[in-house]
TrEMBL record:
Residues 44-107 form the Cupin type-2 domain. It holds the Pfam family Cupin_2. This is Unannotated protein. SUPFAM superfamilies: RmlC-like cupins (SSF51182). One of its GO terms (molecular function) is metal ion binding. InterPro entries: Cupin_2, GPI/OXD, RmlC-like_jellyroll, RmlC_Cupin_sf. PANTHER family: CUPIN TYPE-2 DOMAIN-CONTAINING PROTEIN, OXALATE-BINDING PROTEIN. It comes from freshwater metagenome. The keyword Lipid biosynthesis does not apply.
């Protein structure tokens, strides 16, 4: 077991994410996790994750604060605090902050290294 003060971890702008930043709380680089990564993301007004798919990864999104629009396959849904979205492999998905404050959410991805995006 390890306990990390995430306040010291860096924020980064992942590929295909525009105007928003993610902080990897648990991944192979900082914790040695081989089977998933866990991150918090913060997107300002109009920040977005372009619509994309992952070949083998599953993802779980949990929305903490703010309001946004998510795309899931052919569906579009407004989300806010307390909403959860599960995305299986090959399903087109994306997120946009359509509210009037930062959109903050947590994402868990397994396996963690399914980087290629379509």
């Amino acid at each position: 077991m390890s306990v990390v003060d995430s306040r010291g971890l860096p924020w980064n702008e992942p590929p295909g994410h525009f105007g928003g930043f993610s902080k990897y709380l648990v991944n192979e680089e900082n914790e040695g996790s081989k089977y998933f990564d866990f991150r918090i993301s913060r997107y300002p007004i109009k920040g977005l994750v372009e619509q994309h798919t992952h070949e083998i990864a599953e993802q779980i999104f949990y929305f903490i604060s703010g309001t946004g629009t998510v795309w899931y396959g052919d569906e579009k849904t407004i989300v806010g605090p307390g909403f959860t979205m599960f995305v299986p492999p090959t399903i087109n998905h994306g997120v946009e902050n359509t509210g009037d404050e930062d959109l903050v959410f947590i994402v868990a991805t397994s396996p963690p290294n399914d980087v290629p995006r379509n």
